[in-house]
Amino acid sequence: QEQLVESGGGLVQPGGSLTLSCATSGFPFQYYIIGWFRQVPGKEREWVSCISSNYGDSHYGDSVKGRFTVSRDDGKNSAHLQMSRLKPEDTGVYYCAADFDSGQLCSDVHELEYEWWGQGTQVTVSP
C-alpha cells in the first residue's frame, strides 16, 4: 500500500530553521515527483515546492523562494524540505505528495493530480 509519512514539524521561533522529512513506501519512489504543500485553517492549501524524479528540477513558491530547499534521497525513498529564516506566516500543516513523473515541469502539476498524500506535520513559527 502506498504511504507517505511526514515528520520533523514543531514549534520554532521566527528566524529559525526546521527540516521536514517525507518517508515513502509502496511505490517506485525514483519515478515520482514529490510536492510539498501547506495549509492554514480557513485557507486554501498552498503549493510550497516540488522536486522532479531522478534528482531533477526543483521549484519553489514565491513566498518561500530563497529560504526553503527541497531534496530527495532515492536510495532511502525519502524527501526533505529544509526551511530557514522562518516567518510566522510559514505556520501551517505541511504535506508531501507524490505524482508519477511524466516529464512535465513539477511546478505545472496541479495538486489534484497528485496520487498520494501524507497525513501532514504541523509547523508553528512563533516567538
Topology:
Blueprint: E1 3-7, E2 10-12, E3 18-25, E4 32-39, E5 46-51, E6 58-60, E7 68-73, E8 78-83, E9 92-100, E10 116-117, E11 121-125
Parallel strand pairs: 2-11
Antiparallel strand pairs: 1-3, 3-8, 4-5, 4-9, 5-6, 7-8, 9-10, 9-11
Description:
The protein is mainly β. Helices cover 0% and strands 48% of the residues. The chain is built from no helices and eleven strands. It has strands spanning 3-7, 10-12, 18-25, 32-39, 46-51, 58-60, 68-73, 78-83, 92-100, 116-117, 121-125. Strands 2, 4, 5, 6, 9, 10 and 11 form a seven-stranded mixed sheet that branches. It is globular and about 40 Å long. The N and C termini lie far apart (40 Å). The mean pLDDT is 96.
Average pLDDT works out at 96
Helical residue percent band: under 10%
- Report the C-alpha radius of gyration, rounded: 14 Å
Largest sheet: 7 strands, mixed
Shape: globular
Ranges where pLDDT stays below 50 over 5 or more residues in a row are: none
**DSSP strand content:** over 45%
Structural class: mainly beta
The end-to-end distance, rounded to whole angstroms, is: 40 Å
Annotation field: number of helices: 0
Work out the number of β strands: 11
Encode the helix/strand succession as letters: EEEEEEEEEEE
List keywords for this structure.
127 residues, globular, 48% strand, 4-stranded antiparallel sheet, 7-stranded mixed sheet, mainly beta
